[in-house]
Specification:
The complex is a heterodimer of chains A (269) and B (100).
Chain A (H helix, E strand, L loop, with lengths): L5 H7 L3 H32 L5 H10 L3 H12 L4 H12 L1 H13 L3 H7 L5 H8 L4 H8 L4 H6 L7 H25 L5 H6 L3 H16 L1 H17 L5 H22 L10
Helix pairs in contact in A: 2-3, 2-4, 2-11, 2-13, 3-11, 4-5, 5-15, 6-8, 13-14, 14-15
Chain B lengths: L2 H22 L7 H19 L11 H17 L3 H18 L1
Helix pairs in contact in B: 3-4
Classes of the chains: A mainly alpha (269), B mainly alpha (100).
């Protein structure tokens, strides 16, 4: 752990409100990125899925998982059964299990807080929560210690309040954006609607690139994972491909890191 | 089919994987190697999420998704605001789709 510097002392002084506010600010880019995606969802839910405003908004409210929501509309359009759609949703969202495991170790919330916060775990909130500026360098020194120790030493990003801010802001944007998409879909020309499909991926790219700039290791793992996901998707459903590719690529990253001499080992979370 | 029942079911199967690790692993001491391994998950997940999904952006012309993504990556390299990355990606795909 680094010695108490002037900078650290300032960090330690954060109030709960300040940490929550920081979380909200960290969630703001996600909220912005969600707007076109949520609007697009609203648009296709209505146009392709025949969902009403209440139905589509309820889906975004209760499911809150963009990729699976998109796919469910396509499946509805294709006449799939309820069971099939629920199963596809489950498989596609299984990756959140991995994220939740990582995040629970990262935040160490109480059971009740954890139950509430876990609802807000999405690809984007997870990535922002775990790759916030400075977190890579800080965390490896804390390892298994409680997040309370970490927070006491200035690592505000390990506070459940920080994640709470991120999650609240992102969630609101998702639900409101969906409603807006349904309400205003007729204002958006079809040609633009079709190009909005890239929003989800652009958001992921926007989140990945800054991390990649800091570490080549990150780029290599992401690249390997992408290649694996591609190969696996030839035989497996998309959801399984993502989960397996993630597990294998993380393991490769782990092994690669362990094989490095100690002085060159990178910091993971 | 009852849409609300469908949504309810989708919500439950989505919430459970998010919930269980959060509430079940409290008080568990994670071995160091697990902490290390979990640290790689965010980057692995991002890679798998972006590709091959991005090929579906324009199912008839998969390269449009890739080029659009490349453009978005370029924007992400030169500035920090995610909103421009998303908007830039949409603009790129829109233009490419006009050309095709």
């Amino acid at each position: 752990m680094e010695a108490l510097t002037q900078k650290n002392v300032a960090n330690i002084g954060y109030s709960k409100a300040a940490v929550f506010r920081k979380g909200c600010m960290a969630g703001f880019p996600i909220a912005i990125g969600y707007i076109p995606i949520a609007i697009t969802f609203g648009v296709i839910a209505s146009a392709q899925g025949g969902l009403t405003l209440w139905e589509a908004t309820f889906m975004s409210l209760w499911v809150y998982a963009g990729a699976s929501q998109y796919i469910s509309i396509q499946l509805l359009h294709a006449g799939s059964s309820t069971v099939e759609i629920i199963l596809a949703t489950f498989i596609l969202n299984l990756r959140h299990f991995l994220m939740s495991t990582t995040l629970s170790h990262f935040l160490r919330p109480s059971r009740k807080t954890g139950a509430l916060l876990s609802f807000g775990i999405t690809d984007e909130t997870f990535v922002v929560a775990t790759t916030t500026e400075g977190s890579n360098a800080e965390l490896s020194t804390f390892g298994d210690s409680s997040s309370n120790d970490a927070i006491a030493n200035g690592a505000f990003f390990r506070s459940p309040l920080f994640f709470g801010g991120i999650a609240l802001v992102s969630y609101s944007s998702w639900v409101l954006g969906t409603a807006a998409g349904i309400l205003f879909s007729n204002l958006i020309p079809a040609s633009l609607q079709s190009s909005m499909g890239i929003s989800l991926y652009a958001l992921f790219i926007g989140l990945l690139v800054p991390s990649v700039r800091k570490s080549v290791r990150t780029a290599i793992i992401a690249f390997i994972s992408a290649g694996l996901a591609w190969m696996l998707s030839q035989w497996l459903a998309m959801g399984w491909s993502i989960v397996l590719a993630t597990i294998i690529a993380s393991t490769i990253g782990f092994i690669g890191n362990r094989l490095q001499p100690n002085s060159e080992r990178g910091e993971s979370l | 089919m009852n849409i609300y029942l469908l949504i309810l079911g989708m919500g439950i199967v989505t919430y459970l994987p998010r919930l269980l690790p959060m509430v079940l692993t409290q008080g568990m001491a994670f071995p160091k190697w697990l902490t290390e391994w979990l640290g790689f998950v965010p980057y692995a997940v991002l890679g798998a999420l972006i590709f091959p999904g991005i090929l579906q952006v324009d199912a008839a012309h998969p390269w449009i998704g890739v080029v659009g993504g490349g453009f978005a990556a370029g924007i992400a390299l030169i500035q920090h605001n995610v909103i421009f990355v998303v908007v830039g990606g949409i603009v790129a795909v829109f233009l490419l789709q006009q050309v095709v």
